[in-house]
C-alpha cells in the first residue's frame, strides 16, 4: 500500500510494485508478489555474502564496511567509540541517471 510521508512524499511498498507489474503483465498478483519477494531475498543473500549485485539498466548494489571510529556524544561531549558497521551502497547505471535527469 502506498504511504504518504510527513513531508508529503510517497513511499511505495512491495505490494504496490507487485500490483503494478501484475496490471502490466496480466500475471496474477500473488504470483508476481512471490516472485518479487523471492528475488529480493536472493539479493539480500548475495549482499550478505559480500557479492555485488548488478541489475542491468538500474545499477550496482554492494556492501561497504565502515570501520570502528571515534566520535563525540553531542549531549554530554564525552568521547565515544562508534562500532564497525556494514552499509548498502547503490551506484546507479547511466540509463537510470539519464532517466532521473532528462535535461542533463
Give a verbal description of the structure.
With 104 residues, the protein is an alpha+beta fold. It has two domains: 1-48, no CATH class; 52-104, Irregular (HU Protein, Chain A), CATH 4.10.520. Helix content is 38%, strand content 30%. The chain has three helices and seven strands. It has helices at residues 14-25, 29-48, 94-100, and strands spanning 3-4, 10-11, 53-55, 59-66, 69-72, 79-82, 85-92. It has a three-stranded antiparallel β-sheet with strand order 3-4-7. A hairpin with a 3-residue loop joins β3 and β4 (59-66). α1 packs across α2. It is extended and about 60 Å long. The model has no long low-confidence stretch (mean pLDDT 93).
Question: Which helices and strands appear, and what pairs or packs with what?
Answer:
Blueprint: E1 3-4, E2 10-11, H1 14-25, H2 29-48, E3 53-55, E4 59-66, E5 69-72, E6 79-82, E7 85-92, H3 94-100
Antiparallel strand pairs: 1-2, 3-4, 4-7, 5-6
Helix pairs in contact: 1-2
Output the strand order for the largest sheet. 3-4-7
SSE pattern? EEHHEEEEEH
- Rg value: 19 Å
Structural class: alpha+beta
Can you tell me the number of structural domains?
2
From the coordinates shown, what is the CATH architecture of the largest domain?
Answer: Irregular
The biggest sheet amounts to: 3 strands, antiparallel
Write out the CATH superfamily name of the largest domain: IHF-like DNA-binding proteins
The gross shape turns out to be extended
* Highest CATH level, the class of the largest domain: Few Secondary Structures
* Strand percent estimate: 25-35%
